Amino acid sequence: xxxxxxxxxxxxxxxxxxxxxxxxxxxxxxxxGKWKRSQAYxxxxxxxxxxxxxxxxxxxxxxxxxxxxxxxxxxxxxTLDRWIDETPPVDQPSRFGNKAxxxxxxxxxxxxxxxxxxxxxxxxADAAPEVAVYLKESVxxxxxxxxxxxxxxxxxxxxxxxxxxxxxxxxDQMAIVFKVFNRYLEVMRKLQxxxxxxxxxxxxxxxxxxxxxLPFIWGSSQLIDxxxxxxxxxxxxxxxxxxxxxxMFLECILFITEMKTGPFAEHSNQLWNISAVPSWSKxxxxxxxxxxxxxxxKFPVIQHFKFGSLLPIQPVTS
Length: 318
Prior knowledge:
InterPro entries: Phstyr_phstse_ac, PTPA_C_lid, PTPA_sf. It is an enzyme of class 5 (isomerase). By secondary structure, this protein is mainly alpha-helical. A two-stranded antiparallel sheet has the order 1-4. A two-stranded parallel ribbon has the order 2-3. The chain has 15 helices and four strands.
């Protein structure tokens, strides 16, 4: 498997890179301008859009390159999944926010650096503490026992950092979304169900979804130019059941319908409105705009984002 080690040394940043523990920089609404001008914002958004392009018109089940770091990331996520099985919910009076999540989280908090060290090569070992912070931030909040799009953004930032240090590469694009991010979604859904996590900063019926956003963006890109599936079809149960294994967007719809009762137009009004958009490319563009406005430009979400040497708060230098 190590045929391209020479190449990875070239891709690796010079060893004088000094890593740091990422920290909060957005403390007041007036700091939001710093975030939008930052190198972190430019790199994060660039990463999301590159992957959006990379999965365009492709099914989850298509053939793609699976590198060793991708396999290691899946193994890492499988470990988190196994810990859920080893940490069953506890009996408690309140229905939501099962306290066993805190036990599960404490294990991740303790092990995150070791887990990250299994994914990155020895010569980049110094990066592990910085990168591990994003992994810890990506699974929900252990005090509030909630999960939302800010946690999802931390996982995307985690993957973005792995790209920036050369662990993940251009030809990993499809595997990053279809194998790693998709496995992450499965683990998050299991966490949400097992510990009855609250949606973080949910806009209720006016939000796109209680927990996720990115799989709708990338999932709509997958469906661009599909010969017969149009946006109006995703509210059709039969279509969803027949195609969800191929398309992330439909997998999200399936999960919503499993978790919620009542008419779709009532519990997921925003998605219902999207089903009236004529083409998937229009849906995709609209969702990218909505993601910036509803997630990345909202103080309650971004105040928790952390900045380090890989995703710096400094203004873009171009």
